[in-house]
Design goal:
404 residues, alpha/beta, 3-stranded antiparallel beta sheet, 13 helices, 18 strands, 32% helix, 18% strand
């Protein structure tokens, strides 16, 4: 669903080659890097590199230990056609902006996957003539950026179009065959039952074409969900759907299942906190699921001023958090330990000595508020006193006012 992606802005650009181009060619494309483990591609949170106030990817890497990013979204051109663009507007073939982001991430030892589709916009499966033409358009993206991973985000309105879904699933199968080792995820809407009618039809299309991606991920939000318990229940139900559709046992189904959440306040006003993410993470790792990701890093920061869940934003979470709190759950899923940043100690201020009061006298009578000096400190009487030496004693008559 992810309605924010449609209403709060688009994203980016992609290039051109044939569907038969192999991973060997892609691996030598400009800016390519050695592949990360599949676990990192499975843990890559979504990032819009051209819209929704893109955060600095390398700052996130430094703060969290994150290595992989899911860049979003590749679409058909807004005016029609079968060539890839970022967000319907920026052609991949002439892109330099996203390439720069990718190069920066790779220079720090990270990598990216690219997500195609999303909520809203026109998808290439809707405009290209068949699966081969759709695959050829996506191959341009793989080759230009030297990709080792790709995500098919199949949801409204495209997944209601039978011909478009046939093109997308067919393209995914072609890309998987022509790019050995390519990590492929398929993401679709989640419901309390796991996924809805259109999601089930998409699974049946994959079965009919003999296509098995690394995982089928559902997005259990924007559907009347209420925290982690409702999400893990949906994941359990979706597992049963995978079993019945593909004839898998439970463990095999979990090994091909993924979770794609939404951090903070969802489009429909659901709230998913850090504790909800921890619960779902425990479920995912406990059941050996293949993927754990979320929408989005652009939102993984506290609103300013603090919003307390009052609105949904594309640039902040609307819940109380430290920046990149939610990214750290992806890092844990990948099998790494997020770095801890020790709090900066607050320095104890050095008191500035003041002038000394009249020296204390053993024979004088002092009443509350009278001030004297003794042993290079000033002292204030708390009550009537005589012949009691000023000392730092909570029960004594004198209050230490500091050095003089």
């Amino acid at each position: 669903m992810r309605r924010l992606r449609a209403c709060l802005g688009a994203a980016a650009a992609v290039g051109l080659t044939a569907a038969g181009t192999t991973a060997l060619v892609a691996g030598h494309a400009s800016g390519a890097t050695s592949a990360l483990s599949n676990r990192w591609y499975a843990a890559a949170p979504y990032l819009m590199p051209l819209d929704n106030d893109p955060p600095n990817a390398t700052a996130i890497m430094d703060a969290t230990g994150l290595k992989a990013f899911q860049l979003a979204f590749v679409l058909a051109p807004n005016g029609g056609g079968c060539s890839p663009t970022w967000g319907g507007t920026a052609a991949v073939s002439s892109d330099t902006a996203v390439q720069s982001v990718i190069n920066t991430i790779r220079a720090k030892g990270g990598d990216v996957s690219v997500s195609i589709g999303g909520y809203g916009g026109t998808k290439l499966g809707q405009t290209c003539s068949d699966a081969a033409a759709t695959a050829a358009a996506y191959q341009q993206v793989i080759t230009k950026y030297g990709l080792h991973a790709i995500d098919f985000d199949l949801e409204e309105p495209e997944y209601e179009n039978t011909a478009a879904i046939k093109n997308e699933i067919g393209a995914a199968k072609i890309l998987q065959q022509n790019n050995p080792g390519l990590y492929v995820s398929v993401t679709t809407a989640g419901t309390a039952d796991g996924t809805g009618w259109f999601g089930k039809q998409m699974l049946l299309e994959a079965k009919s074409q003999g296509f098995t991606p690394n995982n089928f991920s559902i997005m259990p939000f924007d559907g009347g969900f209420n925290g982690a318990a409702s999400q893990t229940s949906a994941l359990t139900n979706f597992n049963a759907i995978l079993q019945s559709t593909f004839g898998w046992n439970q463990a095999t189904a979990y090994a091909h299942e993924g979770f794609s959440g939404m951090n903070g306040r969802s489009d429909s006003g659901e709230i998913f906190s850090q504790s909800d993410f921890q619960t779902v993470l425990d479920y995912a790792t406990g059941h050996n699921m293949d993927r754990f990701t979320f929408w989005s890093l652009n939102r993984d920061r506290q609103c300013d001023p603090v919003d307390n869940g009052g609105r949904t934003s594309g640039t902040c979470s609307s819940v109380a958090q430290n920046s990149w709190d939610f990214a750290k759950y992806s890092v844990k899923f990948a099998g790494a330990t997020p770095p801890t940043t020790p709090p900066t100690p607050t320095p104890t201020p050095t008191p500035t000595p003041t002038g000394c009061k009249t020296a204390w006298s053993s024979s004088a009578v002092y009443t509350a508020g009278n001030e004297v000096s003794y042993n290079q400190h000033n002292w204030k009487a708390k009550w009537w006193t005589q012949n009691e030496v000023p000392t730092a004693n909570d029960w004594g008559p004198w209050q230490d006012e500091g050095a003089c």
